[in-house]
Amino acid sequence: MRINIIIIILLVFIAAGSFTFTSCSKKPLQMGRENPELEIQKCMKLTDKKKFEEAVDCLEMFKTRFPKSQWGIEAELLIGDNYFRRHEYLLAADSYQTFIKLHPMHPKVDYAYYKTGLSYLKQSPKSIARDQEYLQPAISNFEIVEQSFPESTYRELDQHYLKEAQTMIARRNYYVGHFYYRTGEYLAAIPRFESVADQFKDSGLADEALYYSGVSNLRLGKVEEAKQNYSQLAMEYPASKYLKSLEKKLLRAVK
Predict the structure, then answer these.
(1) Residue at which a domain ends, from 157, 183, 209
(2) What domain range is 134 assigned to?
(3) Is the pLDDT reported for residue 184 higher than 90?
(4) DSSP H helical segments within 26-69, as ranges?
(5) Domain shared by 178 and 110, yes or no
(6) What is the three-class DSSP state of 69?
(7) Whole-structure pTM value
(8) Ramachandran sector of residue 27 (left: φ over 0; alpha: ψ -120 to 50; beta: rest)
(9) What percent of the chain clears pLDDT 70, i.e. is strictly above it?
């Protein structure tokens, strides 16, 4: 009986110690209501210390306390930046999009579009064999910066990442098209190849895609369509190594 009592007392002390340790490990955030410039520094310091989760909590409280201040308006951007630093890219994209919806005329809205695109790009797997559902939203946001904000300070970076996203989606379409080609599903392969040739001319895959589109058409007996592929290949990529090969296949097909 005495042993049981001792064990119970020990368990109580252990639990109390754990509670004290947990309570002390994370201080509750204190935020005043008078000076937004002073209070936002608390959130910034948490970011500087790489305490990104706590920084998000701080910013959520700040935008509730000071919704009309400069920092209160921009808090959603800062929340997105903290999610981005934690590699939580979809949460980051959601925060940037919320800012765009709430403040479409804000001077930093170009940044929000740019970081939305970059968040979706970062969320996309590097392997083209995996699903790339976020590449198109990335491209759409990059293109908004490109088309609507020609003076943006993020334009050069935006163009760089836009090209990267376009190349990735071109490689993905080519990969899927070539899979269909190898399995003899030429009807499914042709649209993939032609999308690469028509939409992603700077991908480095356009001439090869035209070649395989032409061969696929020949194997389906669509000689006229193959001729169109050849004409486009000859006109846009006269030095392509695929041009002669497709020409030979066409000549054999029309004999």
Answers:
(1) 183
(2) 87-183
(3) yes
(4) 36-48, 52-65
(5) yes
(6) coil
(7) 0.80
(8) beta
(9) 87
